[in-house]
C-alpha cells in the first residue's frame, strides 16, 4: 500500500468544509493547526470572524478535532464534525 504525503505549502490553499452542516471555514492558510508534543495533529483552529484586522476587535475561534477530518481532497479539506464536538473560544 502506497502512502501519499502532502506538503503544507500545497494544502494551505485548500478550503475547509464541514459536510455535517455545510459550513465553510475558509482556507487553511487563514487558520491554524494545533500539534501536540509528539507531533500528532490534534485540532484545526479556525478564525470564525475571518475579517481582516480582526486583531483590533478580538476574534472568535473554533477548535475542530483533527480526527473529524474525513478526507483531504484535491482542493478541499472535508470535515464531519458535530456541533457538540466543536470547542469555541474568544481571544
Task: Outline the secondary-structure elements.
Elements: H1 8-11, E1 15-18, E2 24-27, E3 32-35, E4 41-47, E5 60-65, E6 69-72, E7 76-79, E8 87-90
Parallel strand pairs: 1-7
Antiparallel strand pairs: 1-2, 3-4, 4-5, 5-8, 6-7
Kindly report the spatial arrangement of strands forming the biggest sheet. 2-1-7-6
Mean pLDDT score: 86
Largest sheet: 4 strands, mixed
> How many domain units?
1
Ranges where pLDDT stays below 50 over 5 or more residues in a row are none
The quaternary organization reads as single chain
CATH topology: SH3 type barrels
Indicate the radius of gyration in whole angstroms: 13 Å
DSSP strand content: 35-45%
Protein structure class: mainly beta
The level 1 CATH classification is Mainly Beta
SSE string, helices as H and strands as E: HEEEEEEEE
Provide the CATH architecture: Roll
What is the approximate shape? Answer: globular
Distance N terminus to C terminus?
A: 43 Å
Helix content: under 10%
Number of strands: 8
Q: What is the number of helical segments per DSSP (H or I, 4+ residues)?
A: 1
Task: Describe the protein.
The protein has one helix at 8-11; strands spanning 15-18, 24-27, 32-35, 41-47, 60-65, 69-72, 76-79, 87-90. It is mainly β. The chain has a single domain (17-83), classed as SH3 type barrels (Roll), CATH 2.30.30. It has a 4-stranded mixed sheet with strand order 2-1-7-6, with no helix packed on it. The longest helix has 4 residues, at 8-11. It is globular. The mean pLDDT is 86.
Compact summary:
The chain has 91 residues and is mainly beta. 4% of the residues lie in helices and 41% in strands.
Amino acid at each position: 500500500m502506497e502512502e501519499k504525503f502532502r506538503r503544507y505549502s500545497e494544502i494551505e490553499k485548500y478550503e475547509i468544509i464541514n459536510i455535517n452542516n455545510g459550513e465553510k471555514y475558509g482556507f487553511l492558510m487563514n487558520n491554524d493547526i494545533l500539534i501536540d508534543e509528539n507531533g500528532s495533529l490534534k485540532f484545526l483552529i479556525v478564525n470564525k470572524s475571518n475579517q481582516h484586522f480582526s486583531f483590533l476587535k478580538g476574534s472568535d475561534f473554533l477548535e475542530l478535532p483533527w480526527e473529524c477530518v474525513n478526507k483531504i481532497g484535491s482542493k478541499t479539506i472535508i470535515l464531519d464534525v458535530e456541533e457538540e464536538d466543536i470547542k469555541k473560544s474568544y481571544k
